[in-house]
## 1
Amino acid sequence: MNTIDTAGILVQFAINDTVKEVKPLGNGLINDTYHVITDGEDDYVLQRINNAIFQDVDLLQHNIEVVTAHIRCKLEAAGAADIDRRVLQFVKAKDGKTYYRDEAERYWRVMVYIPDSVTHESVTPTSAYDCGKAFGNFEKMLVDVPEQLGETIPDFHNIELRMRQLREAVANDASGRLDEVRDIVLELEHDADEMCQAERLYREGKLPKRICHCDTKVNNMLFDQQGQVLCVIDLDTVMPSFIFSDYGDFLRTGANFTAEDDPDLSHVGFNEAIFKSFTTGYLESARDFLTPIEIEMLPYAVALFPFMQCVRFLTDYINGDTYYKIKYPTHNLDRTRNQLTLYRAVRRHTPMMTAFIRGLL
Ligand code: GN1
Ligand code: MG
């Protein structure tokens, strides 16, 4: 932060109040985020967009503008209270865009800070129900977005692509680590066809893509001081995807008994209580617009995301750790084994999940 002239960046945006302080906010791994404290009514959030990962910032900001404007209209039409705390609001730069590119080709954006809001890092059965409802509602508000949105990371959750990337990594064996992980590659290959069924059904026209959040972690939600969900944040990955992305990826982190990089595999497991409450909340808001095949495939989605994450971590390990930040040499291997263990646990829970979802309908 010391080397970045935040004042010089902030003057590019239509902020009238005097800035008193700028300090780091949150713990995101991709973008850099700051809380801008002013002497006026509103505080702001300044964020540097990581354009190494999100290479088309114009497309990304356009998606976010369309989505937030649409949600605001929906909330207004529903007569919702406190709308400014329920949807993000961007401040325009002098050229009218919602981002600014500085001389060093860094990209910046500014949002109004939502007052009296907090984030949580873990879920309970009670909050999982609220999260399910909120993410289902987020998708529901976006079913009739008035234009086709682009993919901010092309084929982000396409498991066929992720398998191709794994196979390429295996063929190159750039870091000489393949021997150590051959058994894992074989296990993943064994289930790959089954896990790729969504992409096949999509090509056959049987499965839709909808506007999804695609990074449904509990810390991508703002809560009020009483623990009620205010709004969904971190909209960079909002793009067309299978609804499995939102439903499955939330449970991948929320319903694992431990963190995704816990090396002690005896801690890893699938939390049935979290699954049940999240699913109950999600289906309460999403069941009206979901097709029968989407609902029927929800247990598949719960397995797909640990499977896909295992493929992605393993690919990165074999490639010599070029994508995910690591803290020690076998970090990606620990993550791989953790996700594989979770995947196996989820598969054992499939009959339970199927029965539970039937019971809700
Ligand atoms: C990355 O940085 P974070 O945790 O928000 C990744 C997700 C993975 C996750 C695994 C753009 O997200 O897809 O699920 O790591 N995001 C991107 O920890 O690749
Ligand atoms: Mg986040």
## 2
Amino acid sequence: MRGSFISFEGGEGAGKSTQIRSLADRLTSAGFDVVLTREPGGSPGAETIRELLVNGEADRWSSVTETLLMYAARRDHLERVIRPALDRGAIVLCDRFSDSTRAYQGAGGDAPASLIAALEDHVLAGSIPDLTLVFDIPAAVGLERAANRGGAARFESKGLDFHERLRAGFLTIAQREPTRCVVIDAADTPQAVFDSVWDAVSTRFDL
Ligand code: TMP
């Protein structure tokens, strides 16, 4: 039996990581086999590549180089963690996945959509999420939250215009793929956001 693959997407400071942990707790308490993972990273090799991506100067890599590094990490993560978990019937919750590349490197940066689409075809080879929750928050609000939180700052330092473009990029993805994607208003209180998350997940998987 194949498991279920749920990705959490959105800009900086949208509260994804808190929400994904709450969902993992809820599903684990209900008896499901849950794998909570993240990108870039999620496997030892991909975590090594993550260090290259999230540290250093904002212009350390071009958008195309970033795309290739993201996809090298993603392939390792898929081969070693995500596909084996899905094959044994687990629910995989992934904090960011391929839509982040479309939004950050494509809409925010200047990586060609044709390159990203080709990588999706060949590298994902059909391993796409069953459900994607897109956490939406005004870019300025999210960046302020992220600055207070600290942590990996390379992408946060790219400027408000970049973050507004990637917010629009995420919303465009959700509009084009309404069957896979549900937009969550992340500006609400954590409890209200979790209610929306649970509503989307329980509806989609009939829980
Ligand atoms: P995190 O802060 O959510 O752990 O993610 C690390 C950073 O990596 C975040 O600023 C978004 C960025 N990122 C991309 O630019 N492209 C991608 O494909 C992924 C997965 C993340």
